[in-house]
């Protein structure tokens, strides 16, 4: 507990400074928010446009699909707001700046990601929360305390899955140095969690459920909530998968940090 | 000229340098094609044959080829230039005996050629063979290649203009993200243009973006009269000139500022 | 058991010493010892009657004067051999052609508390690799490192809380945050008490007036200002040991002077042990009493800076002002001098930039006065100067491999 407070305090201090320093570049700050807004609205609009023509997609109607869409974006928020610096890991590894993470008496992952907070993603956060409330209303979900709790647990599990996958992919930088292509590649895989996985053929469904757990990022929990009605034990699979993936991610990170030798002679 | 050839060669080598990069890029593109396939199969699931005048095969081919073109013509020019400007390295360009505008486009061209040969054409062959898309083999293939090259020039010049504008805007990265999503959306690369409401369609036809994606796909898949094909290419050329001029304007601004303030 | 609970982090070293004590002839490294099953460690420990003695002896050394103890340290790297050209790049995609590089090859040394030690050596000699192992960044391939009774790589988090590191070419402060805010974050990270924090800041303000930079973001500082702030940041928690990696690189003369002043003050007033790696002769002359010269992964010299010249040889440079000197006389003179004296190598006779004749000779081999006598007899010498060879020249000779 004491350690947690210690870490939180350091994080808050760095985050506050980071936000302050970003505000100095007013135009950049503004365009960041605007960009995030435009991107999210446009990708949301593409669903709207498609549903102008068809009433439903693979048994999912308009509001259900938007709920899935909103949930997916909510799940990616913790990673995109707090762990954005993972995109620059390969940079830090290549230039040798990563070495500084070793020289602080802190967890290396924590130290690396702290001091960089992507406030502009709050736009997407607000949009997705709005979308979830709006579509949730339209879908007449009957909330109970247990359902709410399970929903929260599933959300946490999904967020941990996504974060874990991001950490694992980013960690490859310790071995292959330039891993931009892997980072970009794994972004494409998110499409398998953004749509109902039932639209894909069997091999894909199998692969993205049991091999790479992308199905657990949005489809599995939303399907449970919207299609199964009452809480069952199977709702807990998502949190379990989340913990598993995250634990694996921590392991991979540790191994990477250990074998990284820094640049220069 | 030899200087520029050296640049192309270097960017090719450095591209080959990283193991597995090529493999994952190809795999990623293939996955993208499959995602488009399954998504649109689901969309067409309950309809008998046509939606908005497009059959499933037409819509799929249109979107998957567009997606491949996006992979081929995308550049990182805007990203590079704006980073250079922000870090102050841009002063270096004054010391090089090459024109920054031509130099960056030429460098991107090296990457473009690589992507056409190793990602684009195989992917298009894959689409045609695996999904049995009817394609006429004739002069239209040549037109297609020229058109893709023109699309690349439009894209590269837009990127250059965006990157160079970082000098006055102090924010090209935000601008890049906006640009990318606008281009993808309004070029019909995500949702085919016929699916849009009529008024939006007419706006899209005025914008340059559809000419980057719609024109090459059109030239590949539909039989056009020679005259019509050339006309479409001329429109693309017009957009190239437009963005070259825009890019030169921003570039001139940078040079003036640099020589006055010294970076 | 006593030893185990007393200082768990030096367990391996103790066992290692106990092992050596028991088998005096055998030089086993910890690397080999580690291959034994875990139980054997304690077996050796329990059987050895000397072990308690060893432990007591060891901890006393660590407590009282030694702060760094390095034994038979090795670090090897495996590197993929890249091939040239376009086709080479393609072939690299499939190649498994690795090469082992011995970056650090069996070095041993120790550092006492309160010392300033200079680490020198040509680029790629293994300096940085050694420093990385000392700071817990890199794991050793073989050998032992004990610093302040920690094993750096294994105890990284606890260990680095007790040291400071300055990397001359990188900023350890957050680049977009004002200096004072960075300091405050470090205060939290290192759990520095107000008293220590204020004392550290005051000391730096007295020395270099750091206050003026407090509210400027790091990226807007000049290189010199950045370095001063970096050193200050590494010192805030008043560590016992500071590593400085090329602290004066790229700085102007006056800031160099300031940096050296700070380092000397920290060393004197707070008894901070300081390890400096540098290429700057000024740093060595002004700071380091002791030098460790590393080349090709091995220690070539370890001793007092004042002994460095002598180890290399008692070189003197003789300068003569001779009337009507020209190239003909010069080459004739070189011929005569070499005929007259038997020396280990051919003596070079050259003109310096002032038109004086210059000869460099090792005193131990050939008394300089003999040469001088010979010269004054043979030529019309107007003036004479005898100089010691400069530290810079010695280092250059050392780097060029003359010490081998």
What does this 3D model show about the protein?
- The complex is a heterotrimer of chains A (265), B (263) and C (404).
- With 265 residues, chain A is mostly helical.
- Chain A has one domain (2-259).
- Chain A has 14 helices and two strands.
- Chain A has a two-stranded antiparallel ribbon with strand order 1-2.
- Chain A is globular, with a radius of gyration of 20 Å.
- The termini of chain A are far apart.
- Chain B is mainly alpha-helical.
- Chain B has one domain (2-261).
- In chain B, 77% of the residues lie in helices and 2% in strands.
- Chain B contains ten helices and two strands.
- Chain B has a two-stranded antiparallel ribbon with strand order 1-2.
- The longest helix of chain B has 36 residues, at 226-261.
- By secondary structure, chain C is an alpha/beta fold.
- Chain C is 43% helix and 23% strand.
- Chain C has helices spanning 2-6, 11-22, 30-34, 38-47, 51-64, 85-92, 127-134, 156-160, 179-189, 194-208, 223-235, 253-270, 281-287, 305-312, 327-340, 368-378, 391-399, and strands spanning 66-80, 98-112, 116-120, 142-147, 163-167, 241-245, 273-277, 290-295, 298-304, 315-322, 350-351, 357-362, 381-388.
- In chain C, the strands form three sheets. Chain C has a six-stranded mixed beta sheet, sandwiched between helices. In chain C, strands 11-12-10-13 form a four-stranded antiparallel beta sheet. In chain C, strands 2-1-4 form a three-stranded antiparallel beta sheet.
- In chain C, strand 11 (350-351) and strand 12 form a beta hairpin.
- In chain C, helix 2 (11-22) packs across helix 4 (38-47).
- Chain C starts with a helix and ends in a 5-residue tail after the last helix.
- At the A-B interface, helix 2, strand 1 and helix 10 of A face helix 2 and helix 7 of B.
Summarize the structure.
Chain A is mainly alpha-helical and 265 residues long. Chain A contains 14 helices and two strands.
Q: Which characteristics define this entry?
A:
heterotrimer; A: 265 residues; mainly alpha; two-stranded antiparallel sheet; C: 404 residues; Alpha-Beta Plaits; 3 domains; six-stranded mixed β-sheet; 17 helices; 43% helix
Indicate the overall shape of chain B.
Answer: globular
Could you state the oligomeric state of the chains shown? heterotrimer
Q: How many domains in all of chain A?
A: 1
Q: Give the topology string of chain B: H per helix, E per strand.
A: HHEEHHHHHHHH
Summarize the biggest pleated sheet of chain A. Answer: 2 strands, antiparallel
- Secondary structure class of chain B reads mainly alpha
So how many helices of chain A? Answer: 14
Radius of gyration of chain A: 20 Å
Give the CA-CA distance, first to last residue of chain B: 28 Å
Q: What is the strand tally of chain A?
A: 2
Q: How large a portion of the residues of chain B is in β-strands, by DSSP E? A: under 5%
Average pLDDT of chain B, to the nearest integer?
80
Which blocks of ≥5 consecutive residues of chain A have pLDDT under 50? none
Query: Strand tally of chain B, please?
Result: 2
Helix content of chain B: over 70%
Helix content percent band of chain A: over 70%
Spatial sequence of strands, sheet with the most strands of chain B:
1-2
Which chains have the largest interface? A-B, 40 and 39 residues
């Amino acid at each position: 507990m004491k350690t947690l407070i210690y870490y939180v305090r350091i994080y808050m201090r760095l985050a506050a400074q980071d936000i302050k320093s970003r505000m100095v570049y007013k135009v950049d700050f503004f365009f960041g928010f605007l960009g995030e807004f435009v991107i999210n609205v446009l990708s949301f609009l593409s669903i709207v446009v498609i549903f102008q023509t068809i009433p439903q997609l693979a048994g999912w109607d308009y509001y259900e699909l938007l709920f899935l869409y909103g949930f997916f974006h909510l799940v990616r928020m913790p990673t995109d707001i707090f762990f954005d610096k993972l995109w620059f890991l390969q940079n830090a590894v290549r230039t040798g700046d990563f070495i500084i993470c070793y020289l602080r008496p802190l967890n290396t992952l924590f130290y690396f990601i702290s001091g960089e907070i992507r406030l502009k993603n709050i736009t997407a956060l607000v949009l997705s929360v709005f979308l979830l409330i709006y579509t949730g209303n339209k879908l007449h979900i009957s909330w109970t305390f247990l359902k709410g709790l399970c929903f929260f647990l599933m959300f946490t599990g999904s967020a941990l899955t996504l974060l874990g996958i991001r950490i694992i992919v980013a960690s490859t930088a310790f071995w292959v140095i330039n891993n931009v292509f892997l980072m970009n590649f794994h972004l494409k895989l998110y499409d398998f969690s953004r749509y109902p996985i039932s639209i894909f053929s069997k091999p894909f469904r199998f692969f993205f459920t049991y091999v790479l757990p992308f199905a657990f990022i949005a489809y599995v929990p939303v399907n449970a909530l919207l299609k199964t009605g009452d809480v069952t034990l199977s709702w807990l699979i998502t949190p379990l998968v989340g913990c598993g993936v995250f634990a694996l991610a921590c392991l991979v990170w540790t191994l990477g940090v250990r074998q990284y030798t820094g640049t220069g002679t | 000229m030899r200087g520029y050839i050296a640049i192309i060669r270097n960017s090719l080598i450095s591209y080959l340098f990283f193991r597995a990069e090529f493999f994952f890029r190809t795999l990623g593109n293939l996955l993208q094609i499959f995602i488009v396939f399954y998504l649109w199969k689901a969309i067409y699931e309950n309809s008998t044959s046509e939606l908005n005048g497009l059959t499933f095969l037409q819509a799929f081919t249109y979107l998957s080829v567009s997606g491949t073109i996006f992979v081929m013509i995308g550049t990182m020019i805007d990203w590079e230039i704006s980073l250079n400007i922000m870090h102050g390295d841009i002063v270096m360009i004054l010391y090089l005996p090459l024109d920054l505008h031509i130099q960056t486009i030429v460098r991107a061209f090296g990457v473009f050629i690589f992507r056409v040969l190793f990602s684009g054409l195989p992917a298009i062959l894959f689409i045609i063979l695996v999904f049995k898309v009817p394609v006429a083999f004739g002069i239209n293939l040549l037109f297609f290649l020229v058109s893709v090259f023109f699309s690349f020039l439009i894209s590269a010049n837009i990127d250059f203009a965006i990157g160079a504008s970082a000098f006055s805007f102090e924010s090209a990265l935000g601008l890049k993200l906006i640009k990318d999503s606008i281009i993808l959306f309004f070029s019909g690369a995500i949702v085919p243009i016929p699916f849009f409401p009529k008024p939006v369609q007419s706006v899209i036809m005025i914008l340059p973006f559809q000419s980057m994606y719609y024109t090459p796909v059109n030239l590949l898949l539909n039989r056009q009269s020679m005259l019509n094909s050339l006309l479409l290419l001329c429109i693309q050329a017009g957009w190239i000139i437009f963005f070259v001029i825009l890019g030169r304007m921003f570039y001139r601004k940078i040079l003036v500022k640099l020589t006055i303030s010294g970076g | 058991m006593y030893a185990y609970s007393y200082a768990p982090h030096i367990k391996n070293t103790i066992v290692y010493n106990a092992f050596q004590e028991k088998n005096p002839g055998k030089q086993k490294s910890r690397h080999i010892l580690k291959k034994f099953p875990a139980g054997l460690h304690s077996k050796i420990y329990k059987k050895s009657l000397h072990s308690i003695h060893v432990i007591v002896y060891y901890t006393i050394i660590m407590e009282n004067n030694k702060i760094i103890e390095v034994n038979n340290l090795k670090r090897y790297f495996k590197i993929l051999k890249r091939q040239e050209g376009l086709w080479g790049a393609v072939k690299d995609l499939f190649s498994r052609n690795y090469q082992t590089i011995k970056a650090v090859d069996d070095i041993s040394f120790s550092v006492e508390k309160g010392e300033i030690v200079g680490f020198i050596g040509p680029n790629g000699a293994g300096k940085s690799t050694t420093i990385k192992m000392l700071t817990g960044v890199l794991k050793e391939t073989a050998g032992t490192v004990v610093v302040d009774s920690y094993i750096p790589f294994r105890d990284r988090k606890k260990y680095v809380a007790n040291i400071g590191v300055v990397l001359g070419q990188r900023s350890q402060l957050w680049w977009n945050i004002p200096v004072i805010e960075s300091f405050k974050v470090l205060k939290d990270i290192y759990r520095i008490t107000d008293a220590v924090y204020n004392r550290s800041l005051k000391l730096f303000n007295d020395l270099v007036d750091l206050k003026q930079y407090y509210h400027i973001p790091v990226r807007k500082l000049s290189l010199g200002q950045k370095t001063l702030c970096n050193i200050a940041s590494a010192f805030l928690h008043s560590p016992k040991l500071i590593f400085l990696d090329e602290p004066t690189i790229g700085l102007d003369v006056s800031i160099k002077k300031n940096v050296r002043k700070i380092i000397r003050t920290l060393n004197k007033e707070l008894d901070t042990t300081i390890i400096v790696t540098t290429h700057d002769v000024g740093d060595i002359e002004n700071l380091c009493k002791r030098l460790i010269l590393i080349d090709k992964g091995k220690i070539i010299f370890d001793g007092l800076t004042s002994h460095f010249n002598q180890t290399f040889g008692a070189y003197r440079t003789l300068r003569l002002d001779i009337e009507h000197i020209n190239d003909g006389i010069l080459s004739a003179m070189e011929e005569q001098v070499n005929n007259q004296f038997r020396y280990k190598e051919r003596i070079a006779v050259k003109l310096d930039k002032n038109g004086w004749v210059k000869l460099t000779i090792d005193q131990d081999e050939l008394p300089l006065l003999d040469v001088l006598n010979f010269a004054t007899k043979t030529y019309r010498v107007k003036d004479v100067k005898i100089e010691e060879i400069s530290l810079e020249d010695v280092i250059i000779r050392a780097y060029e491999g003359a010490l081998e």
